[in-house]
Design brief:
mainly alpha
Length: about 525
């Protein structure tokens, strides 16, 4: 009972901390609050977003503790608290690259109107669909991927939004970015299986101590050096999971904040005024590159529709370059006029942020577009300008990291047993031994850290589960095909089910809001 009270107290303190932080940030902008409705919607959306991270904690992180529990390296309760703590630290030290990589999958028109009814419908549909699927697979004890689930939910919203606008459903998603992320998610289990199997064989060749390859005897802990290795790898996987998976919730929370309180969160008010000179200089350089491609073409009116169309459709036309050049010049003019991002007027913040985001996405697509005929020097110049735009719009306040870290860490400490039993007992025909646990954990830790550095989301579940399967195969321990079939089925069904769920919820919410 005391544990429950402490648990609920921490959750309550976390929510109060979030409310206090939002209040302080809004107050710092000098904004006068005229309606409580946006803040009520913000509260509901934040609870749902943190709920997703909470479920992610006990759904995914169970994989990190399975090896130390089944090798008797740590008692179960100690293991989950230890893992939860390092998930917390992993979130706090994360870069944010994965967060905004996930957001880039969303249709650009929805990002630009995130504060509208469509924006709230989008966020609620994605998160609720992901929570439903995660809870369902957890209840069945299946180690499905929260990363796959969230990405499927995003794709579902994009497809539904396109169909509701009378367009082809395939036009509602950035398929280039989706393919890039899809490769990371599909290849990571293969990497986990192959490298874990190879690492176990290397262990067997180099380490002649037979104790490493024996299953635990009763509740007796392993030798100290083996125990230290397994605890170390569990720590690394937990930290890596926090640094990668925690960012997914951060990106969506930032969308929610931008939509509800743009004056405080649409632009990075922490960028110092003296940095404006650098911004203007990179703007001028980027403008020259784009203007050189726009030679002979002019635009009349608003340049934004043409740039939005290019980001959505990835097709260059005679209006793309002159429109982008005009937008770059307009942004530089706005920033110079106000002197710093903190001084952008409240009624202009959303427009400035949208122009920056749209331009950043256009440059991202243009730099990879073979039809753009950009030289290496041109790409370098545009990339430098994009970094300045992203510094102004893609940031994560420390309080968001703390709240997500709390949700993920606390989630790790409950509900872990169903997935742990599947990973520890039902993948191989023999009990998991020390060497197998260490090999699978080392590969999982390395894979997730590598993906984090490249800003790609990978599935802890996929990497570790396939890693354990690889070690069982390499050890000749045999595999339980029925379990592997069920896990594979869950993996295969995750994307289509998440897409269907989120698309249906988006359609429902668009008719409610």
């Amino acid at each position: 009972m005391k544990a429950v009270i402490v648990f609920l107290t921490i959750i309550g303190c976390g929510l109060l901390f979030a409310a206090f932080s939002v209040h302080n940030d809004v107050e710092a902008t000098g904004t006068v609050v005229k309606s409580v409705l946006p803040y009520l919607l913000l509260g509901v959306a934040l609870v749902i977003a943190l709920g997703f991270e909470f479920v992610n904690g006990f759904h995914d992180t169970a994989n990190a503790v399975a090896t130390v529990i089944y090798t008797r390296s740590l008692p179960a309760q100690v293991a989950v608290v230890w893992s939860g703590t390092f998930n917390f630290l992993g979130v706090l030290t994360s870069t944010g690259a994965v967060a905004f990589g996930i957001v880039s999958l969303l249709p650009v028109e929805l990002i630009l109107q995130v504060g509208s009814e469509a924006g709230f419908a989008m966020v609620f549909a994605m998160l609720i669909a992901a929570i439903i699927w995660n809870l369902g697979t957890w209840w069945l004890g299946l180690p499905a991927s929260s990363s796959h689930t969230l990405i499927g939910s995003i794709i579902g919203v994009g497809v539904a939004n396109a169909l509701m606008r009378g367009r082809d459903g395939t036009s509602g998603v950035d398929w280039g970015k989706a393919t890039e992320i899809g490769y990371a998610l599909l290849l990571s289990p293969l990497v986990g299986f192959a490298l874990s199997a190879l690492l176990l064989l290397i262990f067997k060749t180099l380490i002649k101590n037979p104790d490493l390859f024996k299953e635990p005897k009763g509740d007796q802990p392993p030798p100290a050096w083996i125990r230290g290795l397994l605890v170390l790898t569990c720590t690394g996987v937990s930290f890596a999971h926090g640094s990668n998976d925690g960012q997914k919730g951060m990106g969506l929370i930032m969308l929610i904040l931008i939509g509800t309180v743009p004056t405080a969160y649409a632009l990075n008010r922490a960028v110092p005024p003296h940095h404006i000179q650098t911004f203007v200089a990179t703007s001028e350089a980027a403008s020259k590159v784009v203007n050189s491609k726009a030679s002979g073409y002019n635009i009349i009116g608003d340049p934004r529709p043409a740039v939005t169309a290019y980001v959505s459709q990835h097709q260059l036309n005679e209006g793309t370059y002159p429109s982008l050049a005009a937008l770059i010049q307009d942004i530089a003019k706005q920033v110079q006029t106000y002197g710093s991002l903190a001084k952008v007027p409240a009624n202009q913040v959303s427009n400035t942020r949208n122009d920056m985001y749209l331009t950043s996405e256009a440059i991202r697509v243009l730099s990879k577009d073979k039809a753009s005929s950009l030289s290496a020097s041109d790409v370098k110049t545009l990339t430098a300008y994009k970094k300045e735009l992203d510094l102004s719009t893609k940031f994560i306040p420390i309080w968001v990291k703390i709240c997500v870290a709390l949700a993920l860490g606390l989630g790790t400490m409950i509900g872990w047993k169903r997935i742990v039993v599947t990973v520890g007992e039902k993948i191989g025909k023999e009990h998991l031994n020390y060497g197998q646990g260490a090999a699978a954990e080392i590969v999982a830790m390395g894979t997730i850290f590598a993906a984090d550095n490249f800003g790609l989301p990978v599935s802890t579940t996929h990497v570790l589960s396939s890693g354990i399967a690889g070690t069982m195969a390499a050890n000749g321990s045999g595999l339980q095909l029925a379990t592997l079939r069920n896990i594979a089925l869950a993996w295969v069904l995750t994307l289509p089910c998440a897409i269907t769920l989120s698309a249906t919820l988006y359609w429902i919410f668009r008719h409610i809001f």
